[in-house]
């Protein structure tokens, strides 16, 4: 029997908000950009991405949380130890009907209390290709990702996932 070590993960999302440059309008007219910039964007993390608890064997593997279904999938030499896996949930508020762009990093490094690191890749949202704030000036979306775990690595890994939202 292969030894398995517990790996608990919790992600804290740190929102970063950017307003659109009034001098950078694509069509040369700043009127639309000025209207959108009139109400600043506010980004609030409602729920942090949490991969739950898993055990990792000698071959390592990965844990993935799907943003649409919220399902946790394990691959490789990883065993699901239960607990709740949660998709990240973010609420954006701003100019009603405005189109926005949401940017997540390609990867994020997490750290344990013992100085070890793990990397999250494949961060994705459940947003459409051209997301817009609703008539109430609000947009809520979910995000998930994939954590690659080295062989026999254990610990409680934490990190910040920057979420950037801009007016289009």
TrEMBL record:
* Pfam families registered for this protein in UniProt: DUF4402
Sorted alphabetically, the keyword list is:
Signal
Q: Which residues form the signal peptide?
A: 1-19
Highest taxon in the source lineage: Bacteria
Return the protein name: Resolvase
């Amino acid at each position: 029997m292969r030894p398995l070590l517990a790996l608990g993960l919790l992600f804290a999302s740190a929102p970063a908000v950017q307003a659109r440059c009034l001098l950078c309008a694509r069509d040369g007219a700043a009127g639309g950009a000025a209207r959108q910039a009139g109400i600043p964007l506010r980004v609030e993390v409602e729920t942090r991405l949490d991969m739950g608890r898993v055990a990792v064997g000698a071959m390592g593997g990965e844990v993935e949380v799907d943003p649409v279904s919220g399902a946790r999938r394990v691959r490789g030499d990883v065993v699901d130890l239960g607990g709740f896996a949660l998709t990240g949930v973010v609420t954006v508020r701003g100019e009603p009907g405005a189109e926005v762009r949401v940017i997540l990093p390609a990867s994020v490094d997490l750290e344990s209390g013992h100085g070890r690191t793990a990397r999250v890749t494949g961060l994705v949202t459940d947003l459409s290709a051209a997301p817009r704030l609703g008539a109430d000036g609000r947009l809520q979306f979910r995000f998930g990702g994939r954590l690659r775990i080295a062989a026999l690595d254990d610990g409680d890994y934490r990190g910040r996932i920057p979420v950037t939202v801009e007016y289009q």
